Amino acid sequence: MKFLCVIDNNNKLKIKTKEKLLSVSKKYKIDIDIFDLIEIDNIGKKNFIGSDIKVIIACGGDGTIIRCAKLAIKYKIPIVGVNIGHIGFLSSLFNIDEIDFLFEKILKEDYYIIKRSMLRCDIHYDNKKNFNEIALNEFTIRSGEVGVIGKYNLYFSDYDKLFNMYHADGLIISSPTGSTGYSFSAGGPIVSSTVNCILITPICPHAFNNRSIIIDDKKEILIEMMSDKQIVKVDGRNDIELKKGDKIHIEKAKEVVSFITFSENSFYKNLITRIKIL
């Protein structure tokens, strides 16, 4: 069995993490390909095809795990997170001292697989579909100008009328996994990763009735820009500029990410631990 590991290259524990991984690989006589996060876009077929890599290990915070999730989907390989960041809601292990435990469990195939859903976004401008992307956590729409309120019309696929017009600093459309990310920081609820839903959370809404809502993930969402100079981010990355009249279509993606965990109730165990940190 072979492992591929990605480490957050900006983390102060980077060197210690590499040393620990190399020590454990010798102990268990296994191969580990180690990459810095900055190299992740250069990891491709040549690293996976014929290499017998069975697990991707992401060492860092939630941002590192989110970046690695794209590899996990593309090559249909499960991912496990080791937290060397601040909070690490998505991590299965809390620190690098548990790496021995990780390899013992995986080599014995003594673990659980949790499937996490993703969201797909299609962006339409100039009456054409110009961009599509998937996100593990969320799609965020914000004004491109500091201090300027954005206006957004929101529709559902099975509801032929305008559902709501938001006057806010932005909107966050998140998966259950993303409920512990930016949506949570904006006042949204925490939702178990196994719940079939999509969250809509306004950022600093300028109305008392604009609060987070949770909808069935079978619904499709259409958001129309009612203001110019709007920016869409995919999991905190890839700024896409939109103008008034442009539309975003968001729905549950077909892709799912397989996460390795070592407890049947890992979500609640992690939640309790992370809330104490906060």
Question: Mind sketching the topology for me?
Answer:
Layout: E1 2-7, H1 14-28, E2 31-36, H2 45-48, E3 53-60, H3 62-74, E4 79-83, H4 99-107, E5 112-125, E6 128-135, E7 138-143, E8 150-156, E9 159-168, E10 170-174, H5 182-185, E11 197-203, E12 213-216, E13 221-225, E14 230-234, E15 237-242, E16 247-261, H6 266-277
Parallel strand pairs: 1-2, 1-3, 3-4
Antiparallel strand pairs: 5-6, 5-16, 7-10, 7-14, 8-9, 8-13, 10-11, 11-12, 13-16, 14-15
Order of helices and strands: EHEHEHEHEEEEEEHEEEEEEH
What is the level 1 CATH name of the largest domain?
Mainly Beta
Low-pLDDT sequence parts:
none
Please, how many domains? 2
Distance between the termini: 37 Å
What's the helix count?
A: 6
Task: Write down the CATH topology of the largest domain.
Answer: Tumour Suppressor Smad4
What's the CATH H-level homologous superfamily of the largest domain? Probable inorganic polyphosphate/atp-NAD kinase, domain 2
Going by helix content, strand content and strand pairing, the class is alpha+beta
Query: DSSP strand (E) fraction?
Result: 35-45%
Largest sheet geometry: 6 strands, antiparallel
- Rg calculated over all Cα atoms: 20 Å
What would you say the CATH architecture of the largest domain is?
Sandwich
